[in-house]
Amino acid sequence: MNDAMAWLNAQGLAVPRGSEATETLIVVGLIVVTLALGILAGRWLGPPIEALWQRQLGHHAEGIGPRVPSVVRHGAAALLLSILQAAGQWPPLAAGLIGFFLGVAVARMAAHILRGLNLARWMAWTVGLVLFAAIFSHSVGGLTPINNALDSVGFDLGSWRFSLLRVIIVLVTVICLFAAIRLVNRLVGHAIVSTSSFDPTQKLLAQKLAGIATIALAFFIGIDLLDISLTSLTVFSGALGLAVGFGLQKTVGNLIAGIILLLDRSIKPGDVIVVADKDVGWVNKIGVRAVSIITRDGKEHLIPNEDLMTKPVENWSYTDRNVRVRIPVTVAYDCDLPLAQELMLRAAAESPRVLDMPKSNVWLSKFGEIGIEHDILVWINDPESGVGSVRSDVLNRLWVLFRDNGIVLPYPRRDVHLVGTAAAD
């Protein structure tokens, strides 16, 4: 007990007596009240604010939305404790208690916000720990002793001082700017998506440009906060230029190609395309580096943006979503040809995905080896649903119609003639 009393005295937190003891007890009671009010605020105000946040931001609220009640709880407690701290000149022990719980509330609030922005756990709790240390030390005597102690662990390199304090400042600044970039991108992204004056391609382009502008702005803000001279980055910018010219050439090329694709609208989300005569797929997302294309098999292909600029691409929905599907059919030579062609048109007309306009057509394409070859030409306006299912549906209906009307489908047939000599006596 005596050792603990001696430690408190050394820290300037001597056990109060008399009127100071009374004020300290009052502060303890007020701290309990503020913490209770914070819990009540989280329970009463948290769910409505969370619902409003989810309603206003939609899917952009993922992550931070469920943490809104916790943020409200700790934020309300931190606000009330700040008011209590500024309300008067409290005894050292009372001021230390207020600073301790205020630091905990602020640290927990910051950690929940950063985790809601999908930052790593160690990032969130690093910022929270630094905030707690700063607030608590300020309430018990200031930051100067801690700053001096952290700054003493390091070394000088020219005009720069590399110390533990500098590392902490840089780390916290980078984490906070990273979190700010994510928050701004979510807010701006939601604002762009909600506007009705842009089409989907323009919205996606605006989101990409806004993201680039946000990163550039955060970079210059970070340079200013860390007091880094731009002239000292001359060598670094030259090295970065060489890296872009050599190692990052493809990356930068894909970035520029993606922006060009969005500007000329040649390919946009929802289009059905075929790249280099491969599988048909619909464009799911145009990213910074690659375009996500999902095929009918459910496979997602990531194709570099440059490939879509340099390789042949079939866009089935570039200017018109109507696509003509060719369905080959062969009938026997001895069948009723006009009836067979009429049944082909009937099977196409009865298929639900086939359009009435433009009209379906039947072409006699060739007199083949085993039968008369035709092409049924039908039109659809939903190529993202695939063309194989249309062929299958029309051919299934045609099989039933041919069977009911006596139309025969030919099959390969070969006549073999045996030529031999008379048996010898």
Short description:
With 425 residues, the chain is an alpha+beta fold.
* Helix proportion range: 55-70%
| Strand order, sheet with most strands | 6-5-4-3-7
Main sheet: strands, sense, barrel: 5 strands, antiparallel
Q: Write down how many β-strands occur, each being a DSSP E stretch of 2 or more residues.
A: 10
Order of helices and strands: HHHHHHHEEHHHHEEEEHEEHEEH
Low-confidence stretches: none
β content, as a range? 5-15%
The number of helical segments is 14
3D shape: elongated
* Computed structural class: alpha+beta
Radius of gyration: 37 Å
Instruction: Report the end-to-end length measured between terminal Cα atoms.
Output: 134 Å
If you average the pLDDT, what whole number results? 81
Describe what this molecule looks like in 3D.
This protein is of the alpha+beta class and 425 residues long. Among the domains are: 10-142, no CATH class; 323-405, Alpha-Beta Plaits, CATH 3.30.70. Helix content is 57%, strand content 14%. It has helices at 2-10, 19-44, 46-57, 68-86, 92-116, 121-139, 144-151, 164-194, 200-225, 234-245, 249-264, 305-310, 337-350, 388-405, and strands at residues 154-157, 160-163, 272-275, 280-286, 290-295, 300-304, 313-315, 323-331, 361-367, 372-380. The strands form 3 sheets. The protein has a 5-stranded antiparallel β-sheet. A hairpin with a 4-residue loop joins strand 5 (290-295) and strand 6. The longest helix is centred in the middle third of the chain and has 31 residues, at 164-194. It is elongated. The protein starts with a helix and ends in a 20-residue tail after the last helix.
